[in-house]
Amino acid sequence: MPALHSSRGYSVVDLLFAAGLATTIASIAIPPILPGLDDVRAGGAARYVAGQLQHARMEAVRRSAEVAVQFVAADNGFSYGMYVDGNANGVRTREIARGVDRRIGSIERLIAQFPGVDFGTIAGLPPVEPGGQPPGDDPVRLGVSNLASFSAIGTATSGSLYVRGRRNLQYVIRIYGDTGKTRILKFDSRSRKWTPP
Asked: Which of 60, 106, 110, 160 could form a disulfide with 141 if both were Cys (CB 3.0 to 4.6 A apart)?
């Protein structure tokens, strides 16, 4: 009777073939996935900021006091934090600096939570609204103070915050003053229009 062979593992040739096949498949599959991941990060960052703005709005209503989110430009991007009015005259930049209007929570940086994403604009963006002003190179369009303020009745300062991701992905968060609500739009580079994501 012939002896039966029992296999106890794989040969080196089998392992090298499997590793080569896995590398080839990965090199084909990963490049198309990366733009999708970048879009997920940029869209997630825009939704996160919109959520923080709505949180500030709810804090203003809950506290019956003005609450604002301040955006501060630095050499390496923007930071932002939430502040509550300390003397019933609204949140003011100079009163934040003096400690009159105190901070609620911590200072955050978008790029720290969403790698490759920060406040920014790509060159040549059209206005969000017909007849409006294009953003130029200023991603925080809230007036001169860079404060998104929310009142005790839920109204807000109108404005736009532009979020830019890798591969020139561009989102905008619109703040509507009468309601204090936000809306997110994505820039379609092919049609050159702002559309809901």
From this structure: 160
